[in-house]
Design brief:
Largest sheet of chain B: none
Oligomer: heterodimer
Radius of gyration of chain A: 21 Å
Low-confidence stretches of chain A: none
Structural class of chain B: mainly alpha
Strand content of chain B: under 5%
Number of helices of chain A: 9
Strand content of chain A: under 5%
Mean pLDDT of chain B: 90
Low-confidence stretches of chain B: none
Order of helices and strands of chain A: HHHHHHHHH
Distance between the termini of chain A: 25 Å
Structural class of chain A: mainly alpha
Number of strands of chain A: 0
Largest interface: A-B, 31 and 25 residues
Mean pLDDT of chain A: 87
Helix content of chain B: over 70%
Radius of gyration of chain B: 20 Å
Number of helices of chain B: 13
Shape of chain A: globular
Amino acid sequence: MNGLLYKNLRQNLFAVIISALAPSTLLFIMIIFTSISEENTFSIQLIFQNLADSGIMIRLFFIFVGYMIVEPYLFLIISCDEIKKWAYFSISAPTGVKGQLYSKYLVIFMMCGITFICTYVADIILCSVTEIITGEEMTSVASVLIILFYIQIFMKAIDLPFAVRFGTHRGSNIKMVMLLGIFMIFIIYMLFGPLPVDSEKFFESIYEFIENFNSGNIPDWLFIVQGIFPVISVGGYILSYLISCKLYLKGIENYDK
Amino acid sequence: MTNKKQEWFRIVVFIIIAFVPMWISVIIMNKKIGFKTWFYDIKYSWIGIALMFTPAIANILTRVVTKEGWKNSYLHLHLKGNIKHYIFALILPVISGLISGILITVFFGNLDFREVSEKYSFPFMIGIILTVFATSAPLAWYTFGEEFGWRAYLYPKLEKLTCTSGACLLGGAIWGIWHAPLTVAGHNFGIEYRGFPWLGVVLMTLSCIADGIILMWITKKTGSVYPASIWHAVNNNGGNLISNFLIIGINKNQLNQAYHHFVFLLPNLIIGSILFILLIKNNKKTKNQDIPQE
């Protein structure tokens, strides 16, 4: 088992580094974007003042983009072994299919954890530096990051069995079709569903909701959802592993020679 | 150097590396910035995180400096057969937090628990408990910094050199004294109790001995440092919060005397004592098994 873990980490070291650095680097790149202002004067104080004024939505947007960058790299852990000969060889080891997939699921979980920790630390450092320079307190997005971590795990719990059964290429196609379906439903709703009359108010309410969520100012039922969702996502991840174990042998047939 | 001497030397190196940066930075910051500012202000929060990692850094540096290698690092997950211990680590601090709240009310409150339902809605309480579980597990990386030093290095070494009870008492005392600069600044029990600050240091050391036994038991059972990190994270993040639900009929700001804190720590002291007996029994059993049968 240790060997498989080591192999997966060694083989995908670049992916692990990307998962650690992408969202946190984007957080720092964000400083450049927020520094663009109408005033022609350039000062560190002004840059961080703009950052402090920009609110949490901009930060969350950049973090979200970072998570999107990490997404395909998580699939590399599965795709790196999509060779028929190797797959048959690896499952002939004493640990078998379960060991092979356990190591992959564990490395993906670890990468999600690394992404979360690095983003968390980067956010704290950014908040600290901003407060030191401007004297204004910038709220950390820690609460949202924790939920993002569980969402990432939940998404992987859905994705991975498809990738194992149909291969990462076809698996991601199926995922695309599913996402397209959801997008179509969204479009249909936008065309025919009841929409808020004042769109500005609508977006303001979303913004307000996220800010309240981050500061823990949420209704009781959402506390329960916030508490149950991690159980669902981690439980789903374990279930996904068990399903993948059943599908792996069938999936190997789709691999290249 | 004999093996025993070398092990003691490693412990001394470990303690120096774990203590010196932590004590010096905390003492300086307490003096220059003020405890409440540096500890609670987001501006300095990264310092707090960094300081929690000094035991982990001490573990790594001691192994490198003394050329010890990476045997018994306790870094493996050992999930197989140990899921129940992981769940135990997640749930136990919440249960002891709830018992702490009940005990405080029994000893100092008005014993009318109907007020609980009047004050908080049931979904809110369940939601908060679930949220504590949900948020604490990912935040176990914070506490990993401490656990990787104390439970994965110091305790096993002390156990080898002294005995299980020696490791529990000495390890807990070292861990408690490590917290002393924070305790004397009011982090653990405030500053308003009689006997401040030394009684606080004694109480913290007592608490660390009990908590250390719980954590040592979990670490020995699983052979992994992660369940201990989870227990520590849940305890730091939620134990207090959850006990607040059941503290009824008393102004929480008045619960500032050492005996209040002692009652609060009682559940962990009891659990620690039970696990201490289990550790000793288990140790005797292992020793008996090691003696060759004639």
